[in-house]
């Protein structure tokens, strides 16, 4: 068995490979450490994250399940998986927009926001293809789920809040109004998106359903929906899953 110092050095090497976006190497090192040290939840999650980012989703699912057997998964444990699957389906459909950002952000986030700003079908909040789009009183359009998040209190493009466009300057001195859940869907745009990007829309729907299940603690069902979303990506183009940029 390796000495503790050697194990620490190997894990540092894996973390360094991960940061350098050499996810194949990172996954291999995490696997070696699991064989050496035995089942460890943190190692399974690290391995799953690396496998997800290099498009090896089937193996990633197994690593997530192994982690869940040791301790119940949390919603944040699956956030990158959901985003990577959506990005994989987007790449398969060859959408003319950014591949979406991972939830942890990163140094390239500003460039991705600029890319989303130049794409009329991208949501400026999640930086992905609009899904169930709603238009605010100011005229800008976002995903309904993004607008309904409690943290979203104003339009990301202009200063108007989702609560209404007629508040004027008086509203700026008061507390920001929370978004209203009754905003209606932009039906025509919904239909066009479903027609132009059917796989992307189906994958986004599965992604959101999986996220909801994860929030309620049903991680087995959430992983099942993730696998369904992945199958959409496999069926939309030749070859295996496309690697996801880190």
UniProtKB/TrEMBL annotation:
Organism superkingdom: Eukaryota
* UniProtKB keywords: Metal-binding, Zinc, Zinc-finger
Q: Which GO terms describe its cellular component?
A: cytoplasm
Please state every residue range assigned to the domain named RING-type.
123-158
Q: Which Pfam families match?
A: zf-C3HC4_4
Keyword field contains Lipid biosynthesis: no
Matching entries from SUPFAM superfamilies are given as: RING/U-box, TPR-like
Q: What is the lineage of its organism?
A: Eukaryota, Metazoa, Chordata, Craniata, Vertebrata
Instruction: Tell me the InterPro entries matching this sequence.
Output: TPR-like_helical_dom_sf (IPR011990), Znf_RING (IPR001841), Znf_RING/FYVE/PHD (IPR013083), Znf_RING_CS (IPR017907)
Q: What is this protein called?
A: RING-type domain-containing protein
Any one Gene Ontology MF annotation carried by this entry is: zinc ion binding
> Known PROSITE patterns for this protein?
ZF_RING_1, ZF_RING_2
